[in-house]
Amino acid sequence: MSPLIKKGQSIHHIVVNNPDEFTISEKSLYRYIAGGLLKARNIDMPRVLRLKPRNSKPLEHKVDSRCRIGRTYVDFNAFLQQHSDVSVVEMDTVIGRPGGKVLLTFLFRSSDLMLAFIMDRKTSQAVIDVFDWLYCVLGHQMFSMLFHVILTDNGSEFSNPTALEFDSEGQRRTNIFYCDPRASFQKPNVEFNHEFIRKILPKGSSFDNLTQPDIDLIMSHINSYSRAKLNDKSPFEVFSFLYGKGILEKLGLRKITSNEIILKPRLLRISR
Fold first, then answer.
1. Using one digit for the tens of pLDDT, what is the confidence trace for 67-100?
2. How far is residue 145's CA from residue 221's CA, in Å, rounded to a whole number?
3. CA-CA to 4 of 20 to 30 Å: which in 64, 219, 227, 230?
4. How many folded domains does the chain comprise?
5. Sign of the CA dihedral with 140 first, then 141, 143, and 144 last
6. For residues 151 and 187, is the Cβ–Cβ distance under 8 A?
7. What is the average pLDDT across 218-245?
Protein backbone atom coordinates (compact mmCIF):
# COMPACT_ATOMS: atom_id res chain seq x y z
CA MET A 1 0.00 0.00 0.00
CA SER A 2 2.52 2.62 1.11
CA PRO A 3 4.95 2.37 -1.87
CA LEU A 4 2.07 2.74 -4.32
CA ILE A 5 0.62 5.73 -2.44
CA LYS A 6 4.03 7.38 -2.58
CA LYS A 7 3.89 6.93 -6.36
CA GLY A 8 0.79 9.14 -6.41
CA GLN A 9 -1.80 6.37 -6.64
CA SER A 10 -5.09 6.63 -4.76
CA ILE A 11 -6.26 4.03 -2.26
CA HIS A 12 -9.24 3.22 -4.50
CA HIS A 13 -6.98 2.64 -7.50
CA ILE A 14 -4.66 0.41 -5.47
CA VAL A 15 -7.47 -1.70 -4.02
CA VAL A 16 -9.27 -2.12 -7.35
CA ASN A 17 -6.11 -3.25 -9.13
CA ASN A 18 -4.92 -5.52 -6.32
CA PRO A 19 -8.15 -7.27 -5.24
CA ASP A 20 -6.40 -10.29 -3.74
CA GLU A 21 -4.16 -8.24 -1.43
CA PHE A 22 -6.77 -6.53 0.77
CA THR A 23 -9.48 -7.95 3.03
CA ILE A 24 -10.49 -4.63 4.64
CA SER A 25 -12.41 -1.65 3.33
CA GLU A 26 -10.93 1.47 1.76
CA LYS A 27 -12.33 3.47 4.69
CA SER A 28 -10.32 1.33 7.12
CA LEU A 29 -7.17 1.87 5.08
CA TYR A 30 -7.69 5.65 5.26
CA ARG A 31 -8.06 5.35 9.06
CA TYR A 32 -4.89 3.26 9.33
CA ILE A 33 -2.93 5.93 7.48
CA ALA A 34 -4.46 8.76 9.52
CA GLY A 35 -3.58 6.83 12.70
CA GLY A 36 0.06 6.49 11.67
CA LEU A 37 -0.04 2.70 11.36
CA LEU A 38 1.46 2.64 7.85
CA LYS A 39 4.56 4.25 6.40
CA ALA A 40 2.40 6.33 4.05
CA ARG A 41 0.98 9.53 5.57
CA ASN A 42 -1.89 11.85 4.76
CA ILE A 43 0.65 14.29 3.36
CA ASP A 44 1.32 11.74 0.60
CA MET A 45 -2.30 12.09 -0.58
CA PRO A 46 -3.01 15.66 -1.78
CA ARG A 47 -6.77 15.09 -1.96
CA VAL A 48 -6.92 14.11 1.70
CA LEU A 49 -5.03 17.27 2.67
CA ARG A 50 -7.69 19.37 0.92
CA LEU A 51 -10.50 17.79 2.92
CA LYS A 52 -11.77 19.71 5.93
CA PRO A 53 -10.71 17.79 9.06
CA ARG A 54 -13.43 16.43 11.30
CA ASN A 55 -13.70 17.52 14.90
CA SER A 56 -13.68 13.95 16.18
CA LYS A 57 -10.50 12.52 17.64
CA PRO A 58 -8.57 10.20 15.28
CA LEU A 59 -9.06 6.58 16.22
CA GLU A 60 -6.21 4.33 17.23
CA HIS A 61 -6.50 0.86 15.71
CA LYS A 62 -5.00 -2.35 16.96
CA VAL A 63 -2.94 -4.01 14.25
CA ASP A 64 -3.34 -7.47 15.79
CA SER A 65 -6.55 -8.02 17.73
CA ARG A 66 -5.11 -11.28 19.12
CA CYS A 67 -1.84 -9.75 20.27
CA ARG A 68 -2.34 -10.91 23.88
CA ILE A 69 -2.55 -14.61 23.00
CA GLY A 70 0.49 -16.27 24.54
CA ARG A 71 1.64 -12.92 25.94
CA THR A 72 -0.51 -12.42 29.05
CA TYR A 73 0.78 -11.70 32.54
CA VAL A 74 0.34 -15.40 33.36
CA ASP A 75 2.49 -16.24 30.33
CA PHE A 76 5.04 -13.67 31.52
CA ASN A 77 5.41 -15.34 34.92
CA ALA A 78 5.62 -18.79 33.31
CA PHE A 79 8.36 -17.52 31.00
CA LEU A 80 10.37 -16.16 33.93
CA GLN A 81 10.13 -19.49 35.74
CA GLN A 82 11.87 -21.10 32.78
CA HIS A 83 14.31 -18.20 32.18
CA SER A 84 15.06 -16.81 35.64
CA ASP A 85 18.31 -15.13 34.64
CA VAL A 86 16.98 -12.90 31.84
CA SER A 87 16.81 -9.12 31.87
CA VAL A 88 13.27 -7.76 32.37
CA VAL A 89 12.31 -4.34 31.03
CA GLU A 90 9.09 -2.48 31.78
CA MET A 91 7.75 -0.31 28.94
CA ASP A 92 5.25 2.55 29.04
CA THR A 93 4.45 6.00 27.65
CA VAL A 94 4.28 9.46 29.20
CA ILE A 95 1.76 11.88 27.71
CA GLY A 96 2.41 15.55 27.06
CA ARG A 97 -0.22 17.76 25.40
CA PRO A 98 -3.20 15.64 24.21
CA GLY A 99 -2.57 14.86 20.56
CA GLY A 100 1.04 16.04 20.75
CA LYS A 101 4.41 14.40 21.28
CA VAL A 102 4.79 11.62 23.84
CA LEU A 103 7.64 9.78 25.55
CA LEU A 104 8.29 6.07 25.19
CA THR A 105 9.99 4.82 28.36
CA PHE A 106 11.93 1.66 29.26
CA LEU A 107 12.83 0.69 32.84
CA PHE A 108 15.47 -1.98 33.53
CA ARG A 109 14.45 -3.81 36.68
CA SER A 110 17.99 -4.91 37.44
CA SER A 111 19.33 -1.37 37.79
CA ASP A 112 16.31 0.99 37.84
CA LEU A 113 17.84 2.74 34.82
CA MET A 114 15.22 4.38 32.63
CA LEU A 115 15.46 5.28 28.94
CA ALA A 116 13.07 7.69 27.24
CA PHE A 117 12.52 8.55 23.59
CA ILE A 118 10.44 11.35 22.11
CA MET A 119 7.77 10.29 19.60
CA ASP A 120 5.71 12.61 17.39
CA ARG A 121 2.58 10.55 18.01
CA LYS A 122 1.38 7.76 20.25
CA THR A 123 1.15 5.09 17.54
CA SER A 124 2.38 1.56 17.02
CA GLN A 125 4.56 2.66 14.10
CA ALA A 126 6.28 5.28 16.27
CA VAL A 127 7.09 2.57 18.83
CA ILE A 128 8.37 0.25 16.11
CA ASP A 129 10.62 3.05 14.82
CA VAL A 130 12.21 3.43 18.27
CA PHE A 131 12.77 -0.32 18.51
CA ASP A 132 14.39 -0.39 15.08
CA TRP A 133 16.67 2.52 16.01
CA LEU A 134 17.75 0.87 19.26
CA TYR A 135 18.30 -2.41 17.44
CA CYS A 136 20.48 -0.67 14.85
CA VAL A 137 22.56 1.16 17.49
CA LEU A 138 23.04 -1.78 19.86
CA GLY A 139 23.21 -4.67 17.41
CA HIS A 140 21.38 -7.97 17.70
CA GLN A 141 23.39 -9.54 20.52
CA MET A 142 23.35 -6.53 22.85
CA PHE A 143 19.73 -5.61 22.13
CA SER A 144 18.51 -9.16 22.73
CA MET A 145 20.45 -9.37 26.00
CA LEU A 146 19.20 -6.05 27.36
CA PHE A 147 15.63 -6.32 26.08
CA HIS A 148 15.17 -10.08 26.37
CA VAL A 149 11.76 -9.68 28.04
CA ILE A 150 9.54 -6.59 27.89
CA LEU A 151 6.42 -6.13 30.02
CA THR A 152 3.98 -3.43 28.98
CA ASP A 153 0.32 -2.41 29.16
CA ASN A 154 -2.53 -2.81 26.68
CA GLY A 155 -2.22 0.54 24.91
CA SER A 156 -2.87 0.53 21.16
CA GLU A 157 0.68 1.78 20.57
CA PHE A 158 1.92 -1.63 21.78
CA SER A 159 -0.57 -3.73 19.81
CA ASN A 160 1.78 -4.94 17.06
CA PRO A 161 4.00 -7.26 19.10
CA THR A 162 5.27 -9.24 16.12
CA ALA A 163 6.90 -6.13 14.61
CA LEU A 164 8.57 -5.47 17.96
CA GLU A 165 9.67 -9.03 18.64
CA PHE A 166 11.27 -9.71 15.25
CA ASP A 167 13.67 -7.75 13.06
CA SER A 168 13.22 -7.14 9.33
CA GLU A 169 14.76 -10.54 8.54
CA GLY A 170 12.43 -12.45 10.85
CA GLN A 171 15.00 -12.97 13.61
CA ARG A 172 13.63 -12.81 17.16
CA ARG A 173 15.07 -9.92 19.14
CA THR A 174 12.79 -9.72 22.21
CA ASN A 175 9.70 -11.19 23.92
CA ILE A 176 6.69 -8.96 24.57
CA PHE A 177 4.18 -9.60 27.37
CA TYR A 178 1.17 -7.60 28.59
CA CYS A 179 -0.07 -6.73 32.06
CA ASP A 180 -3.64 -7.58 32.92
CA PRO A 181 -6.15 -4.84 31.94
CA ARG A 182 -6.25 -1.99 34.48
CA ALA A 183 -3.36 -3.55 36.44
CA SER A 184 -0.57 -1.01 36.17
CA PHE A 185 0.69 -2.24 39.56
CA GLN A 186 2.12 -5.24 37.69
CA LYS A 187 4.82 -2.95 36.29
CA PRO A 188 5.35 -0.70 39.33
CA ASN A 189 8.96 0.31 38.66
CA VAL A 190 8.37 2.28 35.47
CA GLU A 191 5.20 3.82 36.92
CA PHE A 192 7.13 5.03 39.96
CA ASN A 193 10.04 6.35 37.94
CA HIS A 194 7.68 8.45 35.84
CA GLU A 195 7.43 10.63 38.95
CA PHE A 196 11.01 11.75 38.30
CA ILE A 197 10.05 12.81 34.77
CA ARG A 198 7.07 14.74 36.12
CA LYS A 199 9.34 16.71 38.42
CA ILE A 200 10.94 18.19 35.29
CA LEU A 201 7.98 17.95 32.89
CA PRO A 202 4.88 18.52 35.03
CA LYS A 203 1.63 16.85 34.01
CA GLY A 204 -0.18 18.92 31.38
CA SER A 205 2.99 20.46 29.94
CA SER A 206 3.60 20.15 26.21
CA PHE A 207 6.45 18.06 24.82
CA ASP A 208 6.07 19.49 21.32
CA ASN A 209 9.18 21.70 21.51
CA LEU A 210 11.38 19.01 23.02
CA THR A 211 14.08 17.17 21.07
CA GLN A 212 15.81 13.88 21.82
CA PRO A 213 18.91 15.70 23.19
CA ASP A 214 16.55 17.41 25.67
CA ILE A 215 15.21 14.02 26.75
CA ASP A 216 18.73 12.59 26.98
CA LEU A 217 19.67 15.44 29.32
CA ILE A 218 16.62 14.81 31.49
CA MET A 219 17.34 11.10 31.71
CA SER A 220 21.02 11.72 32.49
CA HIS A 221 20.01 13.72 35.56
CA ILE A 222 17.32 11.22 36.62
CA ASN A 223 19.60 8.20 36.21
CA SER A 224 22.41 9.89 38.15
CA TYR A 225 20.16 10.35 41.22
CA SER A 226 21.02 7.96 44.09
CA ARG A 227 18.38 5.44 45.23
CA ALA A 228 18.11 3.89 48.67
CA LYS A 229 16.94 0.61 47.11
CA LEU A 230 20.28 0.48 45.25
CA ASN A 231 22.32 0.94 48.43
CA ASP A 232 22.59 4.65 47.66
CA LYS A 233 24.03 3.99 44.22
CA SER A 234 22.54 5.59 41.14
CA PRO A 235 20.91 3.63 38.28
CA PHE A 236 23.71 4.93 36.06
CA GLU A 237 26.34 3.39 38.33
CA VAL A 238 24.57 0.04 38.68
CA PHE A 239 23.86 -0.28 34.96
CA SER A 240 27.46 0.66 34.13
CA PHE A 241 28.72 -1.99 36.55
CA LEU A 242 26.50 -4.65 34.94
CA TYR A 243 26.90 -3.76 31.28
CA GLY A 244 29.58 -1.06 30.93
CA LYS A 245 29.41 2.68 30.24
CA GLY A 246 29.79 2.25 26.49
CA ILE A 247 26.13 1.35 26.02
CA LEU A 248 24.94 4.45 27.84
CA GLU A 249 27.26 6.63 25.79
CA LYS A 250 25.77 5.19 22.60
CA LEU A 251 22.32 6.09 23.90
CA GLY A 252 23.28 9.69 24.72
CA LEU A 253 23.39 9.38 28.51
CA ARG A 254 26.13 10.72 30.79
CA LYS A 255 26.84 10.72 34.52
CA ILE A 256 25.91 13.93 36.33
CA THR A 257 27.79 14.64 39.55
CA SER A 258 25.55 14.44 42.61
CA ASN A 259 25.57 18.14 43.50
CA GLU A 260 24.83 19.16 39.90
CA ILE A 261 21.64 17.10 39.53
CA ILE A 262 18.54 19.19 38.82
CA LEU A 263 15.06 17.65 39.05
CA LYS A 264 13.10 20.84 38.33
CA PRO A 265 11.58 22.35 35.17
CA ARG A 266 14.39 24.91 35.11
CA LEU A 267 16.79 22.14 33.98
CA LEU A 268 15.83 22.69 30.35
CA ARG A 269 15.87 26.47 30.67
CA ILE A 270 19.42 26.39 32.04
CA SER A 271 20.65 24.07 29.31
CA ARG A 272 19.42 26.29 26.46
1. 888 999 999 999 999 998 898 999 999 999 888 9
2. 25
3. 64
4. 2
5. positive
6. yes
7. 96
